[in-house]
Amino acid sequence: MRVEFFGVPRERAGVAELELHAETLGQLITTLANRFPSLGDVITGDHLRSSFVANLNGDRFVSDPRTQLGEHDCVLILSADAGG
Amino acid sequence: MTNPTRFGYHGCYLRVDVSLGSAERVPLTETVLRQFLGGSGLGAWLLLEEGNACLDALAADAPLAFVFSPLVGSPLTTSAKFAVVGKSPLTDRINDSLASSGFAIAGKRCGCDAIVIVGRAPELSTLIIDDGRVRLESAEDLRGTACHVAETTLKTRLGSDYQVASIGPAGEHLVRYATISHDGRHAGRGGSGAVLGSKNLKAIAVRGTARCEWAHPRELTDYSKALSKRSFGPATAKYRELGTAANLLTFNRLGVLPTRNFQSGTFDEAVSLSPEEIRQTHSRTRASCVACTIGCEHIYSLGDEKGVRLEYESLFALGPLCGVGDADVVLRASRLCDDLGIDTISAGGTIAFAMECVERGWLDEPWLSFGSGEAILRAIELIGRREGVGNLLAEGSRRAAQTIGHHSIAFAPQVKGLEIPGYEPRALQTMALGFAVGARGADHNRSGAYEVDFSDKVDRKHATVDAVHYAIETEDKAALMDSLIICKFLRGVFEDFYAEAADMLRCVTGWDTTADECRETARRIVHAKRRFNLLAGWTPEEDTLPDRFLDTALDGDPAAVLSREQLGTLVTEYHRQRGW
Asked: Most buried by CB count within 10 Å: which residue of B19, B486, B543, B576?
């Protein structure tokens, strides 16, 4: 599946997107944390910190680490706060 | 005059009649201050007290209030703010626009909690308030000058200890969405600058020495230090590191970036306008308002000595909304709006609307086409001076549509006359409700309902009545923040905002305020704004969106459709839950 970073998560990861394999959102986030230690202030354990959110395929926002992911899904990691 | 409150307030406001050149101090009771706090809340109360809701917004007797707050002058981060409250010449409804920095502190040091201005000066003037003493000086030599030029000139002339809020040429020409500018920031929305211009005031200069005491200074200092420390954390990282412009790529990816007058939710050239891209080609510095630890302002160079503050709303309105993908043009357009004293959202919205009218053959200005950088710069200049088609566009999209006809009002991107900010309502439907019911029209600062849409609490493309209480919650919270006043960019920092708001008030005023009282105060303020609107002629039919957004899916996203019936249900439920 594809992971896309936006805003601060992109700054921390240093890449805009990458390909990963994970069966659940929690697995994906844990994998990201291991691969990018610089995401420490974005990720805690198997979920995102409160200032960040995940979106599935540009449509639905998801937070439950048990959320099932498919091979062709695209997960967006972005700042929760959209004000401006 | 006895100060009934002792702490945090002066217990009075200064009422200035610029027709007569006179001023009086009017007492404010502790009950009023505790019920309405300051900023937007106290401003709404003052307008109701003045009792002229039916007057034309630009009439001499229509009041314009500059309102401070109990927190102004305290060590609390982001508290150096003031609200400008009056009737909007754009919406004919209540308008409260906020700005930051030294003007708030110097204005409060004049020994008052608000300055209410009525009347019309005999010539273009500067209102000078020196420790509460009031005089008018001719500003005829400043006629036509940019906001920052007027401010710098007056500070040089009067002394650097004065803080100045001024209008640009747009305010002088009564552009209905003219701003009031201070230190590069703007009380931007709803046309307060035109109201000041209608009073023949180019600027207000304030300085003073009156200071308020704090009820619990040691606790206040400790709390302030802790809050400042928290303000450096991840909740504000986006603002600090990229600025609000960071929204652009995210919104584009989610299909909620309004493009070409809301004809699309994505913009092909978005990457070229992103802060990630602009910083590769334009040097950048950061700045903060006085007494702010967040530092959200990102100022980009245009190769000369004066940089351009770039916010998401300016970027979206002067870029994708008008089909413009050239970062240099957007930066120049943003600077031009700042110099002329024009709200960038309303400018972009009105110009984009005009571009669509040209495209449809309803407006004979062939040069005014989507994507043309030259056109947007020319249009802004014309609006600021009310020249040519600029005279029509200076009226805002709603009035322009009424003149153009062809039922173009269906495409005018506004609610109650206020142009819609950069959130596509069909794909952010809790926000759509927030826009529809907003007291000052479509507005992202008075309703942060987009926060719920960007969460797993609601389905953003199929809002149900479950979304209503979220919209109410965010509107109430904004009302309290705008009355305390503290910056909304802090909101992610608070674990329990109402409890912390009560704590701030207790430290400053000594009141035994509770979180529940703060919630009640927030609701009272929302109700006060509505009461003004009712007196000004509000009807329930105003709480809606233009036809473009109803019953037709967003281009390229068939799921993003909001039916008229669905919005009607949400609005009715909102009114019911509000008890209206």
From this structure: B486
User: B55 near B87, Cβ under 8 Å?
Assistant: yes
Gyration radius from chain A CA atoms: 11
B251 touches A at CB < 8 Å = yes
Sequence-separated (6 or more) residues with CB below 8 Å from residue B442: B414, B415, B416, B418, B419, B420, B421, B435, B436
- Listed residue (B135, B78, B126, B142) closest to B104, CA to CA: B78
Q: Look at residue A81 and tell me whether its pLDDT is greater than 80.
A: no
Q: Is residue A84 part of a domain?
A: no
Residue A72 lies inside a defined structural domain of this protein: yes
CA distance B526 to chain A (A): 20
Residue A25 lies in a domain: yes
**Opening angle at CA B203, ends B199 and B206, nearest 5:** 120
pLDDT digits (tens, 9 = 90+) for B465-487: 999 999 999 999 999 999 999 99
Residue with tokens 């005009």: B354
Q: Which amino acid is at B371?
A: G
Q: Do the Cβ atoms of A81 and B253 come within 8 Å?
A: no
* Span B13-68, pLDDT tens digits: 999 999 999 999 999 999 999 999 999 999 999 999 999 899 999 999 999 999 99
Residues 6+ apart with CB under 8 A from B412: B353, B397, B398, B400, B401, B546
- With beta carbons under 8 A apart, name residues in chain A contacting B493: none
The answer to whether the CB atoms of B311 and A84 lie below 8 A apart is yes
Q: Is B63 exposed, middle or buried (0-12, 13-18, 19+ CB in 10 A)?
A: buried
User: CB-based burial of residue B512 (10 Å sphere; 0-12 exposed, 13-18 middle, 19+ buried)?
Assistant: exposed
CATH number of A14's domain: 3.10.20.30
B320 neighbors B273 (Cβ within 8 angstroms): yes
Q: How far apart are CA B43 and CA B50, in angstroms?
A: 11
Structure-block tokens of residue B78? 């982001």
Q: Are A82 and B247 within 8 A, CB to CB?
A: yes
Please state, as a whole number, how many other Cβ atoms lie within 10 Å of the Cβ of residue B386. 18
Q: Chain A window 29-58: which residues touch B at a Cβ cutoff of 8 Å?
A: 41-42, 49-53, 55, 58
Residue B522 has pLDDT above 80, yes or no: yes
Q: Which of B232, B250, B280 is the best substitution to test chain A (most A C-beta atoms within 10 A)?
A: B250
Asked whether residue A54 is assigned to any structural domain, the reply reads: yes
Instruction: Give strand pairing partners of B26.
Output: B13
Structure tokens at A69: 């992911």
Q: Are B189 and B85 in contact (CB under 8 A)?
A: no
> Hunting for tokens 């000594």 — which residue is that?
B510
Domain encompassing residue A54? 2-79
Number of domains chain A is built from? 1
SS3 assignment, position A16: coil
Between chains, do B246 and A53 touch, taking CB under 8 Å as contact? no
**DSSP one-letter string for B162-178:** -EEEE--HHHHTT-TTB
Task: Please determine, for the modelled complex, whether the ipTM score is greater than 0.90.
Answer: yes
Q: What are B475's two structure tokens?
A: 């509107």
Contact B237 A51 (CB under 8 A): yes
Verify whether the Cβ–Cβ distance A80 to B237 is below 8 Å. Answer: no
pTM above 0.90, yes or no: yes
